[in-house]
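If you are new to this repository, start here. Below is one unmodified record pulled from the training split, so you can see the exact layout before writing a loader.
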Amino acid sequence: MGILDWFKNRQGQFDSDHVSPEMMDWAVEEAVTVTNPKLKLLPDCRKRLMPAIEATARFLRPQLMSLPAAQLLSPGAWSADPVLRAFFVAPADIQEVLRDSDNLRGLFDEHPELDMAYAALGMGFKVQQVFGMAVQGDTVRRDVAQTSASFSDHRARLCESDEQRLRRVIGVEIFEYLLSQAMFRIGEDREERQDLQTSRSLMRTRLRLLQQHGPGLGSMLGEAPAGKSEQARLEAELLENERQMEALGGGDSVLEAELECLADVLGNPQRYVHFDSKRLRLSRMNLVVDENSTEAASDIDFGVAEITGSKPMTRAFILVRVLRADLPPPKKLDIDDASRYL
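And here is the target side for that same chain:
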């Protein structure tokens, strides 16, 4: 099975409650398939990857088990739910997120029997200092330093028919992200190897020209031959280039390096992904309120995922339940507006 077939047919296997032999076999197979199927040619490939896969599984299990239970994401629940009011400015914003989720719509279309689906709601998250009005005693003061929390760029892309399957899908997504980081590092090594090969070829050509008393047109135009020091410098650079190429290796040594890289990434997932649970006490204006304050406020719990790999990112998220009845119809194509771009 090729990589494209795997992405079409992959199944969530990272169970949050146990680590099964089937899950481990699946993870090893897909790690090799996605990264480089030729890794199977190396002796004991599976045996050498197993400790790294186990490290990833040990990392993921508590992360998936600690995710809070899914809560209802419904425009009708907005006014009575302080969590939804913290995340969304108005009920219409919830409708917009649901309307934009093609995956949710596809899940409901594929399973007509479903009345409810589960999704991971990801959001941009920012806490910043602002100045506003505040009541202190009997006095209203202006320009009071306050801390504001804001949520934006809401996306509901990961979805499943039940909560347990959703947690497994999240585990698979994290696993895929780790594989992408291994592939990124392997790609950098391959690029370095290619650069060294190109550099070596250029240096050899220039060294040959210099040894023939001039670079290119210099000989024909009567320029003086290159000095011994220039030839010596190029010879030294060529030797260094060859030393670096030897260090990178070739053939089986290339596969060995790729397997080591893959095992290193999967064996240290905490370098690339970090999860944290966060609680903020927020007023209806999304201002952070001290626990000792008498101002009306609610505790808002959510997760924060920090990705520290090749493309760093920090996102807030919660698990949600979505009713089929709350899914708005898809946007209609505005023919007049689209014709302006033709």
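Two things worth knowing about this chain: Residues 29 and 162 are 26 Å apart (CA to CA). Residues 194-267 form one domain.
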